[in-house]
Structures are given as structure tokens and as C-alpha cells.
Amino acid sequence: MTRTVSRRRLLAGALAAGIAVPFGAGRAWAAQSGRLALPRPTGPHRIGIVDLHLVDRSRSDPVAGPGHHRELMASVWYPAITRAGSPAPWMPVAPYRALLESAGFDPDAAAAPLTAAHAGAPALAGRRPVILFSHGAGGHRSEATIVVQELASQGYVVVTVDHTYDAFTEFPGGLLSVDRDDVSFTPWDSTADMLFVLDRIEDLAAGRNPDAERRRLPAGLGDALDLRRIGMFGWSKGATATALVMNEDRRVRAGLSFDGPMESQPRPAAIDRPFMLMTAEFSRADAEAVAEFWALLGGWRLNVQAAGAVHSSYVDHQWLIPQLGLTGDELESYIGTLDPGRAVRIQQAYPLAFFDLHLRGRRGRLLTGPTPAFPEVRYVT
């Protein structure tokens, strides 16, 4: 969607405009080093991460030509035993710089933040629900890291995926792949990627290593995957793909949309499993496709919307951009009027409550109606 792409371009421009500065009481930023910062997850678990290079031999590469297969990069986030090694970066250096350069800005202006995850840390014992994430148009698998690491800290395994040619990503050996305007990429293409990744998750759970280079996997990772409890969420195009994946594969038991436009050819069909909408610009009142999709939801459903939210308010952009010192109308043009600190609390609380209810059977009060804890969140009937 045009608004999705333009907002990503705006983000790139904002990130390149300056370095991190203090924002909010009681929070420490690495302003002097020029590195942006992420909020800490609130769950009790340490977090591990491993990157996977996946090759889908059932599909050809649309750019490389005959004899070349579609390749993807994915990350698996999981509860870990220890904090081994250094914190993983929000995004590798090369694609991060390319993201900034694509918008015509200095790629050295601000370093990417560090996450709470540690590469290769041994997985904590116990079977965990699995959640997949699909990013927006021209985005990357890191764009919802606040939500991803919150879920992992609360005991979930989360698999994030870069959709090659619709993403900024880096493959082993340093091969950089960027968002390409000359390659058609629809929500159905994202869906095909996620269905392929679902199969690779089954490989992991069966003790097989799906990584193309057969790089060592973290100890205990396969045993941590509970394939009876799989959910998915996505932002924008990735939210539409979430609905399409649920149409195609009943392994996904619950789906969550971060302001998905629900536009595809064909559009998403009826779903009889739990689905939740967190809307902003693509609300049921403003987007016909979203209203039509809502009417097709035959299972548990909920639509919430935060006052002042814009399209990117439910992903990391809402938190990163204010660190750059923007004020007034300039800041509002990027993030709307939803307070970034409140946006983080919404990002941490509502997805967790949704997946806790539908993948763990943990009933709480947050999803039952308005609450004084989140006065800016409206429950759209």
C-alpha cells in the first residue's frame, strides 16, 4: 500500500536525521554513542535468538532466474537459559545502512539499537507456543521487535521472516538484498513464504536443521516448540498475509492484525478461529476491505483502536522516532498523537493477552472491554 511504503521512507529519513536523545522520565539512552534504544521486555525469561537461512526448492527465484530457488532469512526468538554473548542488533549493519541510503540519507547518522536477545543461547526447557511474524511492504523482520521480544520474554517462541525483494535483509556471506520496486510482491507471496516457514518449524521440532549452511542450532531449541499451539501476527501487508495463511493452513490457531488493509486478489476469506484487529488508519470505518473482512470472522473476534494512533503506531517506529529530538508538528507527522510510552505498553500488553487467551487458555480482563489501565484504547463494536 502507498501509505505503508511512504511511512517506511519517512522512518528512514527520521532515523538518519540525528542521534538518540533522552525521552521520558527514568529512561537511559545511549545519546553520546549515537545508538538508538529499545524498551526492555517485561517478562521473566532471558531471550535467545538464532538466524536461519532457508531455501524453498519448490519455488524459483524471480530475479536470479532458472535454476535458482527462493531464499529467505528468518530469526527464531525463544526463552533462554543464559545470556550468552553480546546482545543481538535490531538489524544487521548492511541492510540497516541500505534502508537509510534508500531514502537518500547518511547511513552513519545513527546506529541501530540492540535487542534483549543473545545469539545462540541454550533454550529453556519446556514446550512453548509458537508465533510467526510477517512484516509490512518494503520492511524487515525487525520492525516489531518490541512485541517480539516481549512475547519471547513471556515464554513464547517467535519466528520472524524477511520477505526477500520486499525487504532489507542480509544472507550468510554478506549478500545484501533490498526492497525492489521492479519485482511484484503481493500478500499472497508473503503467504507462500510463511507456509514454507511453517514446514521448516516442523523440521526444527523433529530434530532436523533447516538452515541451508547447517549452522549449529541452539541447544534444546527443537524441544521447545509446541506445534499444537501456533499463532501469527503481522503489520500492514503482513497482517493481510496473516489472514491468508489462516485461510490456507489450519495449523495457525489464532491471528492478530496490526492495521492490516486486508487488500489482496483474492481477498481473505472467512475464518472460524480467533482473530483480533488493532486498527489505526485502516479502520473498519475508513477501509471497506477491513469492514468486509470483519464480517467474515466467524470465531472469537475483537477490534481495538488506540486514540491518536497512525499506521506505524503498533510497531517499533512509534518508539524509535521520538528519540531523535523531533517536536511539535514534525514529530506528529511521523507518529500521530499517541504517546510513545503508552504505545509501548499497548504493544506489550494486548498481543500478549490475545495469544495467552487463545494459545494458553489464560483468561484475563484486558480483552473483555475498556479498562482504566489503557484509557486511550477503544473497543470497536
From TrEMBL:
SUPFAM superfamilies reported in the protein's UniProt record: alpha/beta-Hydrolases (SSF53474)
Pfam families, A to Z: PAF-AH_p_II
Superkingdom classification of source: Bacteria
GO molecular function: 1-alkyl-2-acetylglycerophosphocholine esterase activity
InterPro entries attached to this UniProt entry: AB_hydrolase_fold, TAT_signal
Alphabetical UniProt keywords: Hydrolase, Lipid degradation, Lipid metabolism
Protein's GO biological process: lipid catabolic process
This protein's name: Platelet-activating factor acetylhydrolase isoform II
Source organism per UniProt: Asanoa ferruginea
